[in-house]
What does this fold into?
Amino acid sequence: MVSPILELSNINKSFGHVHANKDINLTIKKGTIHGIIGENGAGKSTLMSIVYGLYQADSGKIKVSGKEINLKSPRDSIENGIGMVHQHFMLVENFTVLENIVLGFEGELIFGKNLKKAKTDLKNLCDTYNLNVDLDSIISDLSVGFRQRVEILKSLYRGAEVFILDEPTGVLTPQEVDELFKILRSLKEEGKTIVLITHKLNEIMDLTSEVSVMRQGEVVGHTKTENTNREKLAEMMVGRSVLLRINKSKVERGDVVFKVENLTVKDDLDVTRVKNVNLEIHAGEILGLAGVTGNGQTELLEALSGIRKVESGEIYLNDEKISDNLGLLNPRELKEKGLAHVPEDRQRMGLVTDFKAYENLIFGYHDQEPYSKSSIMKENQILDYSKKVMEEYDVRPRSPNLMTSNFSGGNQQKLILSRELNENPKILLVGQPTRGVDIGAIEFIHQRLIDMRDKGAAILLVSVELEEVLSLSDRIVVMFDGNIVGERVNKDVTDRELGLLMAGVA
Amino acid sequence: MEFLADIASLTNSTLRISTPLIFAAMAGIFAERSGVIDFSLEGKMLMAAFVAAVGSYFFGNPWVGLLMAIVACVSLSMLHGFASVTHKGDQVVSCVAINILIIGLTTALAAAWFGQAGLTPTLTDDQRFLEITLPFADALRDVPIIGLIYSDILSGHYIFVYLAYISVPIVYWVVFKTSFGLRVRAVGENPSAVDTAGINVFAMRYKALAINGVLIAFAGAHLSTAVNANFFREMSAGRGYLALAAMIFGKWHPKTALVACLLFGFTDALQIRLQGVELPTIGTIPVQLIQAVPYVLTVVLLAGFVGKAIAPNAIGQPYIKER
Amino acid sequence: MSVVVDKSKVPWWVSNLIVPLVNLTLALIVSALFIFIAGENPLQAIKLIIYGSFGYIEGFAYTLYYTTNFVFTGLAFAVAFHCRLFNIGGEGQAYIGGLGVFLVAINFSFLPVSVVWLLAIAGAFVFGAAWAFIPAYLQAKRGSHIVITTIMFNFIASSLMVYLLVDIIRDMDQMGPHTVALPENIWLPTFKDLAALFGMKIRYSPLNLSFLLAIAASFFVWFLVWKTKWGYEMRAVGHNTQAAIYAGISPYKNIIIAMLISGGLAGLLSINEILGVHHKIVSGFPAGYGFTGIAVALMGRNHPIGIFPAAFLFGILYQGGSEVTFDMPNITRYMFVAVQGVIILFSGALENLFRPQIESFFVNRLNRRVEA
It folds into this structure.
């Protein structure tokens, strides 16, 4: 019998009226890789943030190695040997790797002896676990995979025995995932304990020896991994049986609707992020664009939707050139020509969260009739329209006068989607349509996109979720370092093959 | 020779005039590097000037005045922290509130306590800081070049002038060479990273603000108990804003901020020098217009060169941990 | 432990009425403390304030005269603030606006009076807007922080106007830095003149026809910000610039428009001061009203419906305050500048001090009533 290293009993946590964790009991055995699976909003991250001392539980007990501890801040957790690699890395971008790692554990007021010692210690740790990180690099120069290693190294340096990893693979290529899993296994061999939070069933099956399932703030199941399978886990996760594949009818694709020729785009810091890209999208086709975050997809989408300046190249919509010497037409003119855009970051770009829902439902179309006339907003028409649309897209709560920030992620995304789809665009640009959205809404959103395609729209789908790209697209292109490095027809491709392309290896 | 003397006197005034700007810019670096906008340098400087003058007057000792000014400014910094760090209020609004509050309060209290329209009583020499003659300054005066530099430019300043220039390397060292500085910079760039490292984000910002309060107090005390012998209404005259512009122009870096402060100091010194002077072809520039030169320069600097000055990443945003 | 409130359940009158009133009360308590420190009795001061502002008809007229000024500068700050711009340059914009009024009035005084008035309003607006243009342009194009640039433009306006008043447009027969008086026929009728039409005899007060302009300006701002496409776009830019760009709304254009309107509204202050009261440009006539506008706008939650009562409250403080300064030697008008600072602090920066507690109190009470 392996002794438990971490025991949680009757943990409760509420945020206002949201009961994020209900009476959680969980035991993690020493030296294992323990998976915690659940959909978005199931309370996994909240629970682990409590274990890491970021939030305080409203009630309940936490024991580490049999000893009850009181976690008031991350410092208490770190001192008890708990380390956490967050979904969004907790790194200071313009600091070096070394500075990031010693932060908070400098051991001296004036940098000198301890910093030198830290450096040698870290080099040793790098060697032991094959991490291969250059301590003097600036974080912003590192790839996502390496940043994650810095996070792991950080926990190691602080003497962690338990490593909590929150959705660690979301931003990695399949090859980087392999590397990560190798590191995690070698950590396990050294006797460390790993808690893996994920919503991906494959990872649970591949890596863990035990798994706990969370749903709506509760732990609803717990089992040895060898005794379960993907379907059973999925059912537990959602509370009903789910289709893991989307039913997609076969549609004859039409003519080319959207054409991009030799497009080059720079980012705000004048770095070329999109390099000579060529794309063609047909009517009735979803073109999936796969790639690791930060390989130019964001800039590409922004350029195609008229938000970002085009350095060079041409863009055609139904054979009409929609770019000129200054780049693309502005977003509003593009909308009139039938281009719609669901942006990657809904809170930063897709919505004004301090607007009421009805104000967001016409955002970008606000100067068109019937929403406004001679520059005066027609509030009644907008409200009538909003009620209708919210009904149609099942947005909850159905109150157009409610502040947008009070809607959940999935409902916010539905607001955007309804707005952009309602004009029946000829070309739809979609970025990360289901990021941070609960599974029910994911199904709904996917179905809507397929419907659009069936109606003959051309769709460009940008997503870092390979599974999403694979299940929705008819054709897939992969972007690496600003270039389109490969194109495949969906039915002929495996995720390994795409992974190699995404890593720029193939 | 007269030209050299002119240069010497201009340099001398530049050093003196830059002094409050330097303290304020260094104070601003601490606040803003930690992620807290500080437009309230102006109000705090004014507060320090008032409290220092009043303290020196009542206790007969300028050091007591300085100490009280420090306490007052640190308190105002804490108030700014309470509003914008703890209660996540708008940082700019908090600063504007402090500035207006202090303009009113200092003048109103001066009037209430001393009966003169916004003036405090003139301090005697015992009650204020006096110019310091450096050792051998008199003896070296007649030595060519060295005498000019040592005796005419470097010697004969108030203690604050020397402290200001000493503060720059110290601030640099603290910000870039100590673990405290590392944490301050980290909290201004990515507070979540600091929080997950087990450091209290709020406490770090309060600490940075406390240092900010100490430094800005020196600027105010310099105005009312050194270069002047009393406090008068709105005597900070926009220096807090100038210093902030210098800090932004210096990209939140002590050394470059110093250069910008000196540029302001020099412009101001030149403007004073040019008042009433007949210039070739232009003639005499009206005094009101020439006085506006530092303000115009501020706008020009902010407009022309700052452009892409990269502020600390988390500046102006309250830290919200819970979702 | 912080209190989390479900925002969708909070009644509007709690967030928009109860909370601001609690904040105001706190601010007034702190202000009373200042008066105590200055060596006077706060209760006595409050009595004087109420008497001074309401106790006799001329006092009340004075209150409304001040209100007029604060409505203009409050609206000015609010319009820019909806675009997330801190226009603290109202003081300078009002000052330069005065130049516009004067130039128009002196050059076109031969025209029919009502035409002169309209032209003067246009002059005030255009000159105020022009003075806001450079900071606006620099913010939009160069990212130069508008707080610093507008403050600098206050200093520059002050220098420029003193220069003009001393060297260029001074009434050369007089010593003081002010211009010649405008012809009497174009002065705005005062409250006293209007009352005389109805046979009422009252003494002079500076309240004049500009008060109606302030009401009109409030309607204008309400309509602009909440009922037009421009207001919608300005608010979008203010809340989320990135999203605005995404929706094809130009932040650049909206920053400029918001600042021009803001500067123009601040400029209207000079209609009251110059066309209504002084009838000439006197040095320093904006007298801090521009800064008071910040407090007025923040207290009024940047909405004309809030700004009007807030301006009225400051009118009471100013008029009542001058009564206080007569009777209490230790209190000067600067005490009321400090009070503004306190009000900005409590209704702006510290507006959330007790908000969660108050809101959850009412939400719980209302819930209980529903359940019962």
